[in-house]
Amino acid sequence: MKGFDALERALGESGRPVVCCFPLYPPLELFHAMGFNPIVLWGLKPFLASTSACDKHVQTFACSVGRHLTEFLLSGDVAGVDSVFFYNACDTLRNLPEILSRNMIGAGRQAKFYHFHVPMQGLGAGVGRDYFKGEVGRLASSLEKDCHVAFSNRNFQDSVEKYRKMRGLHAVLQERVARGQLGFGRYARAVHEGHLVPVEAAIDTLQSLAREPPSNPRREGLHRVMLSGIMPPPPELSDAIERAGLVVAANDIASMHRSFRHTPRFNGDVGDYYVDFYSRHCPCPTLLFTADQRAGYLADMAKDNGVEGVIFVGEKFCEYEYLEFPHIEKIFKQNGIHVLSLEVSIDDRDNVAPLEGRIEAFAELLGSEGP
Amino acid sequence: MTENEKRPGAPKSRAGQNLTALIMNHYAMLHDAAKDKQFVVWASISVPTEIFKGFENVIVAIPENHAAMSAAKNAGVPLAQQAEAIGFSMDLCSYARIDLGTELGDPKASPAGGLPRPDLLVSDTNNCSLLIKWFDIYHRLWGVPHFVIDVPFCYEEQKETDREWIVGQLRELVTLVGSMTGQAFNPDKVKKALARTNEALVHWKAFLALAAHRPSPITAFDTFAHMAPFVVSRGEKQTALHYKMLLGEARARIDAGDYPVQNERYRLLWDNIAPWHQLRAMKARLAASGANLVHATYTSCIGTVEGGYAHYPYDGRDPLLYMARVQNFSVCPYGLRLRFKAMAEIIGHVGIDGVVFASNRSCKVYSIMQMDLQRLIEEKHGIPTILIDVDHADVRKYDEESVFLRIEALIERIDQNRGPGARPYRC
Ligand code: SF4
Ligand code: SF4
């Protein structure tokens, strides 16, 4: 596993058992409060040399996210995965838990699997809300039983505050990116490493990044774009975006802004906390009940941040994103915002030259209309 | 080989004729009823459509059935291309592309002239999650309400809490339809519809069970074609009658010694959605070589729950509770353990020599996990398997020669397993 040592060290030093979570919006605070180190299995590509272990189990038409997290758990290169948590998401991820558990057990690496079901009809009121609170309660009880630790409101509150702080730092850093003071690629890398280390270590990294002097003195003539997709573009593309004279004024990346926008207040009821967490979550194609809010949300985000163009970073084989693209694209175009749609597949991340050319052409298009 | 197959172009069996009439009437009825301003629901295949029988003049169209029929009648590609031309990726499920092409493009390419515009969309996460996004497109475009039945993923036997959650949603659906149509819900009519479905499924399961006979009087291709009434006209008398007729014909074939693959030497199981564009060609090419797809996981699950083989009957009681319970009928979204259980049950009941896993780029929910299932079947049952690439409704993603090369390899492995006296096989 390439360059994973530092992250693994950070996990080891914390002395807590590791729970690997997918997809992106798991109940991190709950696991943390129960004594775990929750990490989110996203953005693993830089740490993986290949997908050879995954290729024995998952067809190549699964997205890179699913294949990389399978590789991560099945390759056996990572020591100390104690548990895995998943909740219901897309058609690729729903099939993975038993593939993972069976083959991890087969390789002599026992990990306890936890999950809950987020009602995709919505959590607004009545049955959905009650059902989901039951699901959260069931998960908390399983953790209490397995960890021999009683759930404590105080611990949970402490964990909530840590995650609030971490998410708040993301807002600060995105603002620095939007001002041209921090490269988007650098920020994206810090975010993805942050998903894989203890929240305390992530906070330290983000704080030092926030204190760094501005890295990009150029402020004039930059065209403001928004990035949208499941994953940020690969580092070479992020660099290409900035080299082309574009600044990432806002991001609607699932593993970035969508993950960090909202931290609820804790009223003493952990079920209520997660009802709030999901029902007021940043709209995302993976949370089916947010579908009606998404176009308006993105249009406002673009307007509030003075965005001139949107770059969709399409994750090849992600049906959720691809079924919404035509509609979202139409909305932006109606609002006079240019759209560039890029598709990044598992191998394209190593071969970005053709995409760079399209980014340059897009920057020229925005430039021809003036800032 | 049946008489029909011996003489291409020979008239269909009575059940075959009845099926054609039933489906043609269904699509004609949809268009006529919509003209009459009846309330049109578009529902996905896992929605328990008997629920709408609790209201008057509510008709139900199933876009997946329309897509399958279009693919079977060679209209799949032109319709999918219409969706691709307006920006939908070719990587998306071919059912979705065919349907979006029909509705957002020119519906004239559809064998049924498309579907009448819905008043309500009802989808179900137990099909797949993609389908919710597909229906959402119409919801946004036409301003039609979209009701999502959220079913917890099926990795194990349905939990009581999950059942209650589904029942709660079915109640909400009843309230919604009642308010949109201005009618009161009549649960007795739903009970009656469920009783008819139950009767249909008794015949269906008896029909499927005949595959245990050697040679088998049925093929999986028959089950693909004849699942349509269950999909489009559940809860109706004609559906029960159709399956009774189908069963009677299959029994008569045994009596007459007239089998679809007269010289049946290889009994295969199919795992995935039907290859709609290949039904005749694949059936004929297999049959010519003594191979019969005697069962398919796709159709065998109808009427069961959670990987069982037996019919899960309606007990005549609370209809919403029963409909919630049988939400776990469809094998495609099961987890690995239940998928394996379903296949093991078929192997045990029917007798299978080899398994064809159709890896379907369009349908991730059905396909991802097949590599592990292959290993499990080979390890636990000693049955050879192959993985072939098939898109269920997009013939552009199908290569007959490479598929049959693999089938040939499967047959050779079956022969090897049988020992030195086995006859060589060629496709
Ligand atoms: S990128 Fe899309 S397909 Fe892949 S795991 Fe995420 S939601 Fe699923
Ligand atoms: S992805 Fe599969 S289950 Fe979903 S609509 Fe397509 S064929 Fe059906």
What does this structure look like?
The complex is a heterodimer of chains A (371) and B (427). Chain A starts with a helix and ends with a helix. Helices cover 49% and strands 13% of the residues of chain A. In chain A, β5 (223-229), α9 and β6 (246-253) form a beta-alpha-beta unit. Chain A is built from 14 helices and eight strands. The model of chain A has no long low-confidence stretch (mean pLDDT 92). Chain A is α/β, with parallel strands linked by helices and 371 residues long. The longest helix of chain A has 26 residues, at 153-178. Chain A has a domain at 15-146: Rossmann fold (3-Layer(aba) Sandwich), CATH 3.40.50. By secondary structure, chain B is of the alpha/beta class. Chain B is 51% helix and 10% strand. Chain B has 18 helices and eight strands. In chain B, strands 2-1-3-4 form a four-stranded parallel sheet, sandwiched between helices. In chain B, strands 6-5-7-8 form a four-stranded parallel sheet, sandwiched between helices. In chain B, α2 runs antiparallel to α11. The longest helix of chain B is centred in the middle third of the chain and has 23 residues, at 187-209. The structure holds iron/sulfur cluster (2 copies).
